[in-house]
Amino acid sequence: MPTIIEITDLSDPALDVFARLTENQLRSRLEPEKGVFIAESPKVIERALDAGAVPFALLMERRKIDGPARDILARCGGAPVYTADREVLAQLTGYTLTRGVLAAFHRPALPPVEALCQNARRVAVLENIVDSTNIGAIFRSAAALHIDAVLVTPSCCDPLCRRAVRVSMGTVFQVPWTQIGAVPSDWPAAGLARLSALGFKTAALALTDRSVSIDDPALMAEPRLALILGTEGDGLAAETIARCDYTAKIPMSHGVDSLNVAAASAVAFWQLRARD
């Protein structure tokens, strides 16, 4: 059973993980392999637990202990639960907790690209996407619309940052993902070569003179396809587009030439899903 600890001192170092560490500090706390991520709300925490993530501390409103968080607490072993009223927690964290519950987890080790993609037919590659809201929304679409795995480039926003996890509604724990390359220079040349070696054709979502529609029969018929999505504003790098097997676009009307990357991902994932 968890240990319930009433918060009496907001400066308690045990609360740093919830209130005083930046996302970068959480990610690389002590050593990268000992990093931390934060999950927010009972539903998201439950999905993290279902994925095998291991919690080491929780923070929640007192009234949640015997309410919405009761089933979660039963799964968290002896992890300490720090609690106080809603107003005290807002003072501690600087914001009102969504649904009144946070959990701190040890970060899992990321699998190699080759292992993750071994049986995948459709993967999404996120190139340098920096907005956490977009990352979360893309993962939610990937989970709903038949994407087998997500690969993020080294300059991409961390999918386990608090906001991305929350926006994804915990689907970041349901869709297998990993980083493709250790440093920015590993993408695009080396990364695309790895995908090719694994049997994937690559499709850059971009507007160019050679772009085909996403309902192009040849594109849709590819047995293994990696969809490459670019950063907000600038889109994909020219080198990435040049190295891909296809360049694909979403047909539009009323003079609109592009969608937000999260919206575009949902359209592309559905249209280009693997069909048995």
From TrEMBL:
One of its GO terms (biological process) is methylation. Residues 123-269 form the tRNA/rRNA methyltransferase SpoU type domain. The keyword Methyltransferase applies. Signal peptide: none annotated. Pfam families: SpoU_methylase. One of its GO terms (molecular function) is RNA binding. InterPro entries: Alpha/beta_knot_MTases, Ribosomal_eL30-like_sf, rRNA_Methyltransferase, SpoU_MeTrfase, tRNA_m1G_MTases_N. Keywords: Methyltransferase, Transferase. This is RNA methyltransferase.
